[in-house]
Amino acid sequence: MDSIRIQGGIALQGKVRVQGSKNASLPVLAATLLVGEESLIRNCPRIADVYSMISLLKSLGCSVHWQKRGIAVDSSQVRRAEMPKDAVKGMRSSLCLLGALIARCSEVVMEHPGGCVIGERPIDLHLSALRQMGVEFTEEEGCLRAVSDRLHGADIALPFPSVGATENIVLAGVMAEGDTVLEGAAMEPEVSALCLFLQRCGAWIEGVGTDRLVIHGGRRLYGTDFTVPADRIVAGTYLFGCIGAGGNVLLEQAPEEEMRSVLEAAEQMGGRVYASREGIYVQAPARPAAIELVTAPYPGFPTDLQSVVLAVETRGKGRSRIRERIFENRFRVVEELEKMGASVEVDSPESVLVHGVETLQGAHVEARELRGGAALVVAGLMAEGETFVGGCPYIYRGYENIGRDFRELGARVASV
C-alpha cells in the first residue's frame, strides 16, 4: 500500500508500545557475520530495511529465520562476499556490511549504497579509515571492490563523528590483528548497542559510549542472545505527534536516557513530559511554543527528528528557527507542508524560519524520504480535513506500522 489517509483534528489519547530500533538492528545483524555460530536477535522491528538486511545475509550464505522470539542468524556457512546490486542500491545501511565482510572474507564487492535522498552522504570516511587498517579499494564497472590480505589495527581519528564509519571501524577492528584506537567516534546509542552485542559475543572493546574507542582485535567470537533497544526516533516521532495534534500519550518502553535532547525540545515547545518505568508520558499544550532548534551529533538533537519538529511548528505560536547541521537536504518536506498551508522560509541550505499558522488544511502530499514522510503523517494528524500521504514505502523503511500505532492513540489513519 503506497498511501496513508489521515482524518485530522483528533487529539491523541492512550498508550502505544515503541518498536525496536532500526538503527541498532541493522549493524547488529551485520555483526552476526563475524560470529560463525547462531545468534538470536530479539526485538528487531518488522520494517522494510530489516527485511532487506535479512535478504542480504541470506544471499551471502547465512541461515536466517524469523522466529517468535526474534531473528536467528547462523553465519557459519558464509563464503560469498558479493552483495546483490539491487539490494545494496535500495538500502544505505548495507554499507555497514563492508567492515564485517572484509573481516570475515577478506574481500567485498558491492555497488555504492542507496537509501534516502537526504544529501550526498559520502563514504570517504569509511574508506579512509579502512585503508589505514590494510584494506585496498578499487572501482570496477561501477562497483566497489575491497581487499585485505591482512587486516590490522590502527590509530584512527575521524574528522566528523560519523555513525556508519564508526560502526565499520568497530566491525573490522574486532577481527583485526592488534589494537585499533578510534578518536572522534560517534557516541550514538546505536553504536553502543553494536559494541554491547560484540562484547556479549566475546569482543574486547573499551570506552563504549564515549568518543574514544579501543578495540582489541583477534578474539574468537561466539553466538549470543541479544535484545535490540527501543527506537528513540520512533518514540520521538510519536511524542512530537502528540504535541502537534494535542492530547495525552504514554510511550511504552521509550528509552528516556537516550532522549534527553528530545525531551528538552518537547518541554521548550510547551509539552509536559514525565519519565517512569513504563516509558514516557507526554501531555500536549494547546498550541506548540516556538523553538530555536539545531541538530547535532549525539547527545545533541537528532537530525532524524528535525523534519517532525518542523511539521509541528507549522502550527506553533510565533516564529521558529530550525538549523540542520548534519545533512544538507533535510528540508525537502517544506514544499509538501506548504501545500497544507504552512508558512516556511528556507533562508539557507541549513536554516528555515517557520511562521506558525492557526490551522493546516488536508492535502495530497508526497513523502520523498523516510523521516520527512513521517513528518507529513504528523502534519496530517494536525490538519483540518483529510490528508493523503503518498510515497509510503519510504516510511515503511523505518516504522513497523505508523498507521496502526497512531490508531491505537485514537487517530483516524488508514493505509490505502
List the helices and strands and how they pair.
Layout: E1 4-7, E2 12-17, H1 22-31, E3 38-42, H2 48-59, E4 63-66, E5 71-74, H3 85-89, H4 97-105, E6 107-111, H5 124-132, E7 136-140, E8 143-147, E9 155-157, H6 163-173, E10 179-183, H7 189-200, E11 204-206, E12 212-216, E13 225-227, H8 232-245, E14 247-252, H9 260-268, E15 272-275, E16 279-283, E17 292-294, H10 306-313, E18 319-323, H11 333-338, E19 343-348, E20 351-355, E21 364-366, H12 370-382, E22 386-390, H13 392-395, H14 402-408, E23 412-415
Parallel strand pairs: 2-14, 3-13, 9-10, 17-18, 21-22
Antiparallel strand pairs: 1-22, 1-23, 3-5, 4-5, 6-8, 7-8, 10-12, 11-12, 14-16, 15-16, 18-20, 19-20
List keywords for this structure.
416 residues, UDP-n-acetylglucosamine1-carboxyvinyl-transferase, Chain, four-stranded mixed β-sheet, 14 helices, 23 strands, elongated
